[in-house]
Amino acid sequence: MVTLTAKLTVKAGKEEEFETTMKGVVPKVRAEAGNRAYTMCRSKSDPRVFMFYEEYVDQDAFNVHRKHLGELGVNLGALLDGAPVLEFYEKIAS
User: N or C terminus: fewer CB in 10 A for the chain?
Assistant: First the structure.
């Protein structure tokens, strides 16, 4: 299992565009064969910060997800203020 959070800071003025774009992407990611969770959250203290909670059955499924995002035509570089911050976890109970 691959479990991670991805913290993304969006460029000022791009918050709504990012949110709308990603709301369309979430169900497509959830439909990926190896995806177990893909939840989008927005910071209550900073509306430019979004966090995704993600789970994949294995590293191969995560790699497919990364490729799939590119195939969906999402240009994160145009929307983000810096690189996403990924933090990986070991799932020990659910």
Answer: C
Query: What is the per-residue pLDDT across 38-63, written as a single tens digit (0 to 9) for each?
Result: 999 999 999 999 999 999 999 999 99
Tokens encoding 4: 């991670």
Rounded to 5°, angle at Cα 54 from 2 and 4: 55
Cα distances (Å, whole numbers) of residue 23 to 17, 49, 56 = 10, 15, 19
Q: Note the CATH number of domain 2-89.
A: 3.30.70.100
Domain ranges of the chain: 2-89
The pTM (predicted TM-score) of the whole model is 0.93
